[in-house]
């Protein structure tokens, strides 16, 4: 993401002009947008024209519109973002108050104006515009006959290819059918890696499976790379890392990313940091439950005692439509930061974020134990609705 212009007043009202440069920037933009914001962007509008003879025709014109945002639709697989709203600025093609849907495009700038730019949104812009934060991990999670090729970016886990091949069982005295099917499967996975993994950006390719599937596949991969003289695989061989997983399904990614050997290798990636923070939280919950809280009411009580060392919070909470509820989460983040605590904003498109959402999206590791929070128990359920 490129920040082209930023104009925010002392009262925190103002606007920024941004240019999304890659698919992941659409996810960041989705997290910046809120109902009631105004969005100015280039868009295509179908316009009806009447000729001097009275015949009516229609044409598509590119125009720049400013809409008051009403609905936001994000397609996580295609990384497409559509914003629907009413036109709030004079335009020769679109009447004031008319509805229009803008589909934001890569490499086309847009201007977003808000009545209040809070700290969470400004942090998101900083993160999105940091060139160091890119998709630097790929993973192939596999078992015999099934493989998922996944990219792990700082903000999301993207399934790029799913390979499924039926592998017949070995028969007594003949393994031919089994071996041929296995080779077809390995070949399809190899092609998926070549198609979807950008080795210029990716620092590490995790190959994970139960048993010896990962070992057999990598032997096949580099044997074929030598035979086909595939330089890109041979040059990037050191980036491949074999890890055990309990299955070839995408959900095994969480277990892979929390493997200590993997976390040390990926120590500079945001995704690994999230996984480790969640792992630490669960350990604390098990061994010192008075230093691990979750649920908004409990975490706010801990914050009042200035006890929060690490706050774990899901980005989903900042997309809450109710302004008062959203402000409550922002206040919590600001307060913890002011008290010297660490903030970990989890992406709800990561496996770790999905897990945090099961704990109502907010949890905290405390500096010191706080006992007897049972009176907050009743508030917690009502507060989180």
TrEMBL record:
Compartments in which it is found: Cytoplasm
Gene Ontology biological process: nonfunctional rRNA decay; nuclear-transcribed mRNA catabolic process, no-go decay; nuclear-transcribed mRNA catabolic process, non-stop decay; ribosome disassembly; RNA surveillance
Signal peptide segment: none
Domain eRF1/Pelota-like N-terminal span(s) in chain numbering: 1-130
InterPro entries: eFR1_2_sf, eRF1_2, eRF1_3, eRF1_Pelota-like_N, Pelota/DOM34_N, Pelota_N, Ribosomal_eL30-like_sf, TF_pelota
Listed SMART domains: eRF1_1
Subcellular location, principal: cytoplasm
GO CC aspect terms: cytoplasm
Coiled coil ranges: none
Keywords associated with the record: Cytoplasm, Metal-binding
Domain of life: Eukaryota
Cofactor(s) essential for the protein: a divalent metal cation
Molecular function per GO: metal ion binding
Pfam family of the protein (one): eRF1_3
SUPFAM superfamilies, per the entry: Dom34/Pelota N-terminal domain-like, L30e-like, Translational machinery components
Family membership noted in the UniProt record: Belongs to the eukaryotic release factor 1 family. Pelota subfamily.
Function (record text): Component of the Pelota-HBS1L complex, a complex that recognizes stalled ribosomes and triggers the No-Go Decay (NGD) pathway. In the Pelota-HBS1L complex, pelo recognizes ribosomes stalled at the 3' end of an mRNA and engages stalled ribosomes by destabilizing mRNA in the mRNA channel.
Protein name, UniProt field: Protein pelota homolog
Species: Megalops atlanticus (Tarpon)
């Amino acid at each position: 993401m490129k920040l082209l212009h930023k104009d925010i007043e002392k009262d925190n009202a103002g606007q920024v002009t941004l240019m999304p440069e890659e698919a992941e920037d659409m996810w960041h933009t989705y997290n910046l947008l809120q109902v009631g914001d105004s969005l100015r962007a280039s868009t295509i509008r179908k316009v009806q024209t009447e000729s001097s003879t009275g015949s009516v025709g229609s044409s598509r014109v590119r125009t720049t519109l400013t809409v008051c945002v009403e609905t936001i639709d994000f397609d996580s697989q295609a990384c497409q973002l559509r914003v629907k709203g009413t036109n709030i600025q004079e335009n020769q093609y679109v009447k004031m108050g008319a509805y229009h849907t803008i589909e934001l495009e890569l490499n086309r700038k847009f201007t977003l104006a808000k009545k209040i730019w809070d700290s969470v949104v400004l942090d998101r812009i900083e993160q999105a515009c940091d060139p160091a934060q890119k998709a630097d991990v790929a993973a192939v999670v596999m078992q015999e006959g099934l493989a998922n090729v996944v990219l792990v970016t700082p903000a999301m886990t993207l399934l790029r290819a799913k390979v499924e091949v039926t592998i017949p069982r070995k028969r007594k005295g003949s393994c031919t059918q089994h071996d041929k099917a296995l080779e077809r499967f390995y070949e399809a996975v190899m092609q998926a890696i070549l198609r979807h993994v950008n080795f210029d950006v990716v620092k590490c390719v995790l190959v994970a499976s139960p048993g010896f599937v990962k070992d057999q596949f990598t032997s096949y991969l580099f044997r074929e790379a030598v035979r086909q003289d595939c330089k890109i695989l041979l040059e990037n061989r050191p980036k491949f890392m074999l890890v055990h997983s309990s299955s070839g399904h995408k959900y095994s990614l969480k277990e892979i990313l929390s493997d200590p050997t993997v976390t040390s290798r990926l120590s500079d990636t945001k995704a690994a940091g999230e996984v480790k923070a969640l792992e630490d939280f669960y350990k604390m919950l098990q061994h010192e439950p008075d230093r691990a809280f979750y649920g908004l009411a409990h975490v706010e009580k801990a914050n009042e005692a200035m006890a929060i060392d690490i706050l774990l919070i899901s980005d989903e909470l900042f997309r809450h439509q109710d302004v008062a509820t959203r402000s409550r989460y922002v206040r919590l983040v600001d307060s913890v930061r002011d008290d010297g605590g660490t903030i970990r904003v989890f992406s709800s498109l990561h496996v770790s974020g999905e897990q945090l959402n099961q704990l109502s999206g907010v949890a905290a590791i405390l500096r010191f134990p706080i006992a007897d929070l049972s009176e907050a128990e009743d508030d917690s359920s009502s507060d989180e609705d």
